Amino acid sequence: MSDVHIRRLTVAHVVGFVFGATLCAAAIWSADPHATFLQPPNPAAPPGSLRMAGVVLMIGAIYFWSGVIAARQRARAVANSSHEAARPRLRRPANAAGGALLRWQAILAVWLALVAYPNAWTWETVGFKGPASTIAGLCVGILVYALFTALLTFYLRASGGLDKFADDSTRTMAGIWPRPRRQKAAAWIAFCVFNPVIEELLFRGVLVYQASLAMNSIWAPLLVGFAASIGNHWYQGRRMMALHIPFYWVAIGLLFSPLGLGGAIGFHIAGDVAPVSLMARQLRQFRQRHRVSSAPGSARG
User: Fold this and answer.
1) Cβ within 8 Å of residue 197, ≥6 positions away
2) Average pLDDT in the 131-155 region?
3) Residue 202: which of 134, 114, 265 has the closest Cα?
4) Which of 9, 82, 98, 239 could anchor a disulfide with 183, C-beta 3.0 to 4.6 Å?
5) Domain coordinates in residue numbering, the chain
6) How far is CA 101 from the centre of its chain?
């Protein structure tokens, strides 16, 4: 390894350590009942609600920057590859990626349950409407996702972009889904169990719903939440914004409906379980599309 690479790794580790330490300190401080900085104008909101919104934005910054790095690595690997198969090469994650994702989700869950609650958030202030409404919201959210998917597919097929969208979706899933069986199980728990609840709670419940309550205004939290949602998923590519932009606004509609946070979580559960469940089929279709498109005399659609 060259001296330049060593220096780059050293700088990256130092920056990562400093940012991680700052995030941990901010996460603990946000729930301090004695802190007076950034007190919410609305006393009905938890005293640490605005400070917690800042921590969520820091987490969003981690997601954005990690995605940028992953996208650059993927592009560099493809550009430097001598792979000349009939289809583009799919970059796969490290073998231990599933365990790493599950540990991160577990850390967030512990922070939310044992540190931040109830001084930085409560179920009521993030849009929880009660057990009955939450169960109904989960069911309705799943049904709404089925309708959402049907409409999105119709639009992509009518506009001629369905195959390209499917290619980008397959590349995204391949880039985050590990190969070893145990790691796949860990990734499934992380994506399909923890992620829909934690991401909706943080980026919709805290950053939008609770911040709107704390600030007595909905517009700034809506726009900040939208920017965070786009940033969290930007690594998937510009074309995938055809999914994530309407996904955000549908989730927001469910959040502020009588279904509350449960509706948004149900919508997100379906949005994570569906692509994971269909991944094997997506990979087969990806191979078939590029086998056909690379055949002599064929034209890519």
Assistant:
1) 265
2) 95
3) 265
4) 98
5) 3-291
6) 12
Region at 260 (left for phi over 0; alpha for psi -120 to 50; beta for the rest):
left
- Max distance between CA atoms of the chain, in angstroms, equals 72
The separation between the first and the last C-alpha atoms of the chain, rounded to the nearest angstrom, is 43
Can you read off the two tokens belonging to residue 284? 């087969």
Q: Which residue has the higher pLDDT, 52 or 24?
A: 52
pLDDT at 136 over 70: yes
Task: Kindly give, in sequence order, each residue whose CB lies less than 8 Å from that of residue 2, ignoring residues fewer than 6 positions away.
Answer: none
Beta carbons within 8 Å of 102's beta carbon, 6+ residues apart: 186, 187, 189, 190, 194
User: Tens digit of pLDDT for each residue in 153-210?
Assistant: 999 999 999 999 999 899 888 888 998 999 999 999 999 999 999 999 999 999 999 9
pTM: 0.88
Measure the CA–CA gap between 208 and 201, rounded to whole angstroms. 10
What is the per-residue pLDDT for 16? 67
Q: For residues 90 and 168, what is the distance between their CA atoms, to the nearest angstrom?
A: 10
Nearest 5°: phi and psi at 92? -105, 155
Phi and psi at residue 271, in whole multiples of 5°?
-70, -20
pLDDT tens-digit readout, 212-256: 999 999 999 999 999 999 999 988 888 899 999 999 999 999 999
Task: Report which of 64, 34, 65 is spatially closest to residue 51, judged by C-alpha positions.
Answer: 34
